[in-house]
Each structure stands twice: as C-alpha cells, then as structure tokens.
# Entry
Amino acid sequence: MNNMIEENLKEMIKQAIINANTQISEEIKPFIDQYNGPFSNVIKDNYRISRSTGLPLCQDTGMVEFFCFLGVNFHLKRPLQVILDEAVSEVYSVSPYRYSTVDDPLFGRKNRLDNTPAVVHIICCAGGRLDIRFLIKGGGSENLSRLFMLSPSAAKEDVANRVVEHIAESGARSCPPLKVGIGLGGTSEKAMVLSKLALTSSIYKHHQDPHYASLEEEIKERINSLNIGFQGLGSSITCYSTHILTHPTHIATLPLAVSVDCYLCRTGSVTFES
# Structure
C-alpha cells in the first residue's frame, strides 16, 4: 500500500511541476493580459505558446524548492527527499527544460543533468495529511534574496525602507512584476525560509494581523511607486503582492529576509491523504 501511495504522490508532483513550468498562473494572467507596454505582445505570445506546445514559460527552469507539511500520521516507506528528487529528475530528464543545477558550487560547477537535488523543507505537523507547496526558482529572482539583521529597536518604517530600497536598487534584474516575500523574526536562516514560504501564498492573501496586513500594503504601494515596471521597462506595475511571515525572535535580534519571485510566479501545491 505504501508503494502505491508513493507512486501516486510522485505522479501528482510530476504533473504539478509540468503545469508550473508550462501553464501561466490564473492569478497572474489578468495582469499580463492588461499590460500594453513595451514587448507586451511578446510576453503574451510567450504564455500562449507554452500553453499550447508544452514548451517552458522561461528558459530558466530553475531549481525546485519544496515546503512539505508532513502529518505525524502520514507514513512513507522511503524518505520524502528521495521521492521528490525522483519526481524532479523524471520530469526534467524527459522534458525540454534546462538543467540548472551544478554539483560543486565553487570548484568545477559540473551540471548534474537532471536538476536534482531539490531543496526540501519538512515541517512536521499534526494529522494524517501531506501538504506540499513548491517554487520553480530561477536564478534571476534567487539572486535578489537578501538577509538584513536589523536593530531590535527598529520600527515598521525601518523594515519598509530596507525592503523598498533593496527592490529599488536591484528589482529590475529579476523580471518584474514581482511577488515579494518577507520573513521577519526567528533566526537568520528561519527568516530566509519564511521569506521563501511567503512566495507560495496567493497574491490575494493578506496577513491575518491587521498591523502586518497594513505593512504589506504599504510596502507594495511604495514598490509600485518606483515605476520599475514590467521587465524593468518603466511601464505598468512593479509588484503583484507583498507577503510577510513572522516568527518569535531573540530579544537582541530582528532578522529581516527578503525573497522575490519573477513575473511568472511559478508555484504549485499538492495535498495527499494516506
């Protein structure tokens, strides 16, 4: 029975990865359809061709980063990392997707030729379900990831200023409009993971705390006032949405992490019950 569960799970993940690489997000599509600035026809033709042919939306088919909410009563025979790596390898090995993963990060940088290993975060939780969210993370957007260690006395204006200044300096290099993820609190690595997880949220989802929801909207409006625009060409919006995730932190620290997703926002999710 576990073998069947694992095979079904793997097939669901494979199809979700294919969809994310070839089918424009229904949340993002209206923004692209309404855009009439420079190269608008090319951008629109791109997603139409991908949808009809199965060719990838972008030549940078990225690294796949998974966030797995694993219920304590959901049991697998093999490690989840192994199953997810098989799914990624099987998709990328037979699809016209670019291999983007090199083995040694500094010396040699030899391509692994199957886009593995995936980056996998496992979060244990109650219940008998496995909820997986993932990002197809291209190099342009990944290079905009930043960690700032703010003073614990920093105010919301300091957080907003640091995020907006970073996007003003570098945002045009990651194919805007952007989805902006912000991790606040925890430790340095926790904040970075939160900022990535925030990118899996719907662009219409807001923080349930009204103070943070207001800060999300303020940062988004300020980023859009930069007029970086589609593809950095100064026309239309610069930011689809801003999402903040928080975590308790040390009394002497205030980690602030920023991650962004490019205009395609290639994400997906799978829910599986044993």
